[in-house]
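Ticket #4471: structure output looks truncated?

Reporter: J.K.
Steps to reproduce: submitted the chain below (298 residues) through the standard prediction queue, then opened the result file.
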Amino acid sequence: MTTTDHRPWRGVLVATALPLHDDLSVDHGKYAEHCAWLVENGCDGVVPNGSLGEYQVLTPEERAKVVETAVAAIGGERVMPGVAAYGSAEARRWAEQARDAGCASVMLLPPNAYRADERSVLSHYAEVAKAGVPIVAYNNPIDTKVDLVPELLAKLHAEGHIHAVKEFSGDVRRAYRLAELAPELDLLIGADDVLLELALAGAKGWVAGYPNALPRSTVRLYRAAVAGDLDTAKELYAQLHPLLRWDSKVEFVQAIKLSMDIVGRHGGPVRPPRVPLLPEQEAAVRAATEKALAAGLA
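Returned output as attached by the reporter:
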């Protein structure tokens, strides 16, 4: 188990988009370079195989190699892979793979093949915790239909199964309830467009989407927000929000990859069943990204 003074999930951890070649194979070279570039530009680490990394459509070999590529690029201390899977045994194997690759923590969704009850959720986290690597829970009731409410998170934490939670429900009121029920459980901002609200509510980190395209300004926003520098944070938040809100939309992968392309990074295509943005969506993302560039936010 990790000690309280060592919490590698704190700070800005980027849920990395995965660069693909035109034939949709993984470009591991560009991915390694992307991880290094994010850290050079102020991010604290990366989360490979999160929702943004299209892990559901990777082969097991690709998924494992993505983790190994990130570790080789920036060191395992900075890498917190997503280990979500339909079965607890499979998720545990992914946690063991991350551990063996040298990662210091992993991120785990609740069972997401069906609407799991509380006993199943507790059992799932207990099983994956046997891998011996600290777990950050990921609450995404919008996509998984399982809601890790504060009471359930407090139970998971009391059992020693989780150390932090990436909170994506969008309900900022939960931060205060969670702090009462489990003061030692670290709250991580899980959606870019509630960053300021959750930072002010005591978040200790951000599992982030838009730093893939604009690391410097988004990291500056996060640091100002957690430091209580509201003048800086509010101005940046207002400027960036037209982009940040795409992180909570269905097309978040395509939007962030398009922004990456526009700022001169390699975002590139997505794998099916995802499809390219509609023309009006692309125009909106393009306009917001170009406005951010013009404002010096790249």
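Triage note (M.O.): checked the attachment and the full token line is present. The CA atoms of residues 95 and 227 lie 33 Å apart.
Status: closed, working as intended.
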